[in-house]
């Protein structure tokens, strides 16, 4: 190709967008086996041991493979899996969902989020996010040529209720709620949900509730948004098998929404994806249907909650960590690290834009612990870092030992 050739146009939105930060940090950590990687949410638990024999002998047989590989799945996904999802809500939350009209199977929770945005908003519409929030939301909003309406959410007991009482997002067509939340572990309170229902009905704003960490709570119970009074008809709920079952590579998720939204999502899905892997849907149904399911999920949730408690007791202000946000769920910690930042060598402070970035670089290089700077999740996270709690025991124990090895001033 001639060096004088003009560069062909590309997507300027994607070109200007930063890389997927936690994945990039994790990839760097994997290059050095001595690094204790607390940066990326790939659960060490899973697949559930209760389902291994069934998956091996039934779901992964050649006959099952051939049957699934030779045909396209229907737009809405496997009816058997949709019925299992319906039973999930009935058994866990005493909520009724119609598997024929209100449930759709997707390529993980990520596709469900994209479909939800496309189904209920148009180009240029504002979609509200709390700050901090999972970085994928804002990037997807931008990719879809919608407007990000990100508003600060101060730490406290009823964070979303306080946000709605003090800030205006009335023009947003949708509001994405992640509860239990990545990165902070926040779980919405009863007062939060009450305020959110009032806001949604007053402004005709859709609530997109990402509940992928629904089984991982401690101290505050989880409720799907469509089970809240006043939100049944205003909500799109997103869930998946990636986190709770420790199978992020399975790429199976689901959406619960009113019939009209499901019909639109099916149409979008056909044009973008055609169908979800049939064989993997069968594996997902095996996981949901097994009688040992709830006991296994409780065990993994207790492990994560125990690690959160141990971490908070260990990583005290003596080592530069404070906890203005108490984690109620999910599998992350989001401590404030201003104390640690103040003790850093000047070179780290000079090279970083935020306290979290400086501390993350210091911990990676000096302590051999990989974490994600909190600014990735919004300005409210500038003085925080995110740590995952779903690693192997050896990684978790090594990281905690290194993070608490040197008190400030020593």
Automatic annotation (TrEMBL):
The entry's keywords: Aminotransferase, Pyridoxal phosphate, Transferase
Class in the EC hierarchy, top level: transferase
EC number annotated for this UniProt entry: 2.6.1.-
A single GO molecular function term of this UniProt record: transaminase activity
Domain Aminotransferase class I/classII large: 37-401
InterPro entries with a match to the protein in the record: Aminotransferase_I/II_large (IPR004839), AspAT/PAT-like (IPR050596), NHTrfase_class1_PyrdxlP-BS (IPR004838), PyrdxlP-dep_Trfase (IPR015424), PyrdxlP-dep_Trfase_major (IPR015421)
Taxonomic superkingdom: Bacteria
Cofactor: pyridoxal 5'-phosphate
Entry annotated with the keyword Transferase: yes
Pfam families on file: Aminotran_1_2
Cited PANTHER family: ASPARTATE AMINOTRANSFERASE
Similarity remark: Belongs to the class-I pyridoxal-phosphate-dependent aminotransferase family.
Name of this protein: Aminotransferase
Species for this entry: Pseudomonas fungipugnans
């Amino acid at each position: 190709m001639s060096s004088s050739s003009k560069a062909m146009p590309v997507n300027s939105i994607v070109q200007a967008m930063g890389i997927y930060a936690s994945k990039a940090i994790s990839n760097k950590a994997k290059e050095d086996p001595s690094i204790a990687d607390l940066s990326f949410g790939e659960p060490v638990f899973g697949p559930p041991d209760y389902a291994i024999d069934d998956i091996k002998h039934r779901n992964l047989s050649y006959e099952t493979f051939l049957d699934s590989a030779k045909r396209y799945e229907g737009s809405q996904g496997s009816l058997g899996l949709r019925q299992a999802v319906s039973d999930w809500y009935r058994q866990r939350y005493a909520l009724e969902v119609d598997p024929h009209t209100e449930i759709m199977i997707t390529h993980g929770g990520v596709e469900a989020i994209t479909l939800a945005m496309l189904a209920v908003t148009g180009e240029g519409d504002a979609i509200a996010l709390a700050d901090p929030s999972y970085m994928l939301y804002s990037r997807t909003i931008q990719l879809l040529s919608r407007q990000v309406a990100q508003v600060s959410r101060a730490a406290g007991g009823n964070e979303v209720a306080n946000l709605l009482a003090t800030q205006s997002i009335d023009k947003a067509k949708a509001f994405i709620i992640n509860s239990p939340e990545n990165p902070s572990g926040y779980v919405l309170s009863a007062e939060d949900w009450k305020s959110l229902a009032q806001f949604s009905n007053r402004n005709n704003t859709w609530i997109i509730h990402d509940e992928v960490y629904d089984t991982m709570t401690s101290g505050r119970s989880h409720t799907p948004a469509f089970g809240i009074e006043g939100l049944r008809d205003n909500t799109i709920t997103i869930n998946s098998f990636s986190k709770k079952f420790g199978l992020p590579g399975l790429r199976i998720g689901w959406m619960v929404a009113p019939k009209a939204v499901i019909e639109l999502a099916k149409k979008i899905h056909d044009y973008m994806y055609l169908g979800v892997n049939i064989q993997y849907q069968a594996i997902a149904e095996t996981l949901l249907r097994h009688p040992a399911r709830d006991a296994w999920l409780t065990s993994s949730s207790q492990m994560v909650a125990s690690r959160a408690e141990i971490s908070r007791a260990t990583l005290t202000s003596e080592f530069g960590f404070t906890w203005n946000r108490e984690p109620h769920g999910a599998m992350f910690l989001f401590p404030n690290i201003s104390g640690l930042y103040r003790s850093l060598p000047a070179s780290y402070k000079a090279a970083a834009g935020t306290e979290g970035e400086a501390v993350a670089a210091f911990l990676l290089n000096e302590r051999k612990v990989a974490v994600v700077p909190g600014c990735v999740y919004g300005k409210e996270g500038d003085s925080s870092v995110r740590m995952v709690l779903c690693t192997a025991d050896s990684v978790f124990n090594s990281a905690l030992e290194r993070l608490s090895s040197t008190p400030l001033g020593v």
